[in-house]
Design goal:
By secondary structure, the chain is of the alpha/beta class. The protein has 15 helices and 17 strands. The chain has helices at 15-28, 53-61, 68-71, 78-85, 88-104, 129-136, 149-162, 179-192, 212-219, 244-252, 266-273, 290-299, 310-321, 329-342, 345-353, and strands at residues 2-7, 33-36, 39-40, 43-46, 49-52, 74-75, 110-114, 139-145, 166-174, 197-202, 210-211, 222-225, 233-234, 236-239, 257-262, 277-283, 302-305. The strands form five sheets. Strands 2-7-1-8-9-10 form a six-stranded parallel sheet, sandwiched between helices. The chain is globular. The mean pLDDT is 90.
């Protein structure tokens, strides 16, 4: 078995994005491939046990046959960490559970392992990324969200820290206006320094989209109409605070959007319904009138009401957009598409053989 560890030093960097892409592509090529998320902090209950939420989704999305306790062997919470720090035997058990799951996969051709939020999460239990890489003797791919020169330093620094187990990196979420520079200048520069770059991925609005359900949960809102639309994905957000004539021109330029506006702006709400709008977010804790609700229902537009004012709602939405996850089947197909376009699988396979 060849273990491939996907690591990063920041959350929401795209580790699962790269892991899904590698697993899918290797399976297409006929290899026996496994996936594992050793350490979880976003766990949910599945039957009587608790597993990583992303791992549960990925198991189903990629039709992985292994049991969940092999794919997601350990969930870390504040309570479990404190308890296990007080008991050395239990602390050792955390590492044992992960390594038992790892050894369960030993008959795989490849095992793709998605790391924790950063390099040191779980250090006090000896289950941090550095410890697991050493225990598993895994090859490391480092995923770095593009932040300019700091990202180059992070990738090069990771190579120096990990040593021979480091095989290359990925720059992710690169703004479109910077993409040619990163591909044509930064990538060759890093390669000359001895740091292989397997892919340079641009920021993708669809992958960063959120469902209406997620918006309601984040804003503690209520659904007024369009309950059947809760799993629709929203890629664009617009604020409706102008006159209605400008609003129509403004809204018609952007598809698949949510419009954020005050509950008293029925003119803006009707203008939004006339264009490609999936959701209207009413701020200020008030409802709209029946006429707007009827028009929205007839047009398939969901309307939700939230307590926040418009700009507070925008702040919260911007926060959740920076922390989106790949937990919708449509996003899996987009991941595969982007991965096929950009990731250099041949370079990866060659690196694993050397």
């Amino acid at each position: 078995m060849i273990p491939i560890f996907i690591a990063s030093n920041t959350g929401y960097s795209g580790k699962n994005f790269i892991a899904i892409g590698i697993v899918s592509k290797l399976k297409e090529l006929g290899h026996n491939v496994g996936y594992m998320k050793p350490l979880s902090k976003t766990s949910v209950k599945e039957g009587k046990d608790v597993y990583d939420a992303d791992a549960i989704f990925i198991k189903k999305a990629l039709s992985l046959p292994e049991p969940m306790n092999a794919i997601s062997p350990f969930a870390l919470s504040y309570e479990t960490q404190i308890v296990q720090l007080r008991d050395r035997d239990k602390a050792k058990n955390a590492n044992k559970r992960i390594m038992d799951a790892f050894n369960y996969m030993k008959d795989k051709d490849y095992l793709v392992i998605s790391g924790a939020t950063d390099l040191f999460e779980g250090s006090m239990l000896n289950i941090d990324v550095i410890a697991l890489i050493n225990d598993m003797q895994a090859y490391v791919i480092f995923v770095e969200v593009w932040k300019g020169v700091a990202s180059m330093d992070a990738l090069y620094g990771m190579q120096r820290l990990i040593g021979d187990r480091f095989i290359g990196g990925v720059f992710n979420k690169v703004p479109m206006n910077i993409l040619p520079y990163v591909r044509e200048s930064v990538r060759p520069f890093m390669e000359k320094k001895g740091t292989k770059i397997f892919g340079v991925f641009h920021k993708d609005k669809f992958l960063e989209s959120v469902t209406i359900r997620h918006i309601i949960e984040a804003l503690n809102g209520g659904i007024l109409c369009g309950e059947e639309k809760l799993d629709e994905l929203i890629s664009n957000f617009m604020i409706g605070a102008m006159d209605v004539d400008n609003a129509l021109r403004y809204f018609s330029k952007v598809p698949d959007k949510a419009v954020i506006t005050g509950a008293n702006r029925t003119d803006i709400q009707l203008a939004a319904i006339e264009t490609s709008t999936k959701c209207i977010i009413l701020t200020g804790g008030l409802y709209t009138n029946e006429f707007v609700l009827e028009r929205a229902s007839a047009s398939g537009v969901a309307i939700i009401a939230v307590q926040e004012d418009t700009f507070s709602a925008v702040d919260k939405i911007e926060s959740i957009l920076s922390k989106t996850r790949i937990r919708e089947q449509g996003k899996i197909e987009r991941v595969k598409e982007l991965f096929n376009q950009e990731f250099d699988l041949k370079k990866l396979m060659k690196s694993l053989k050397n």
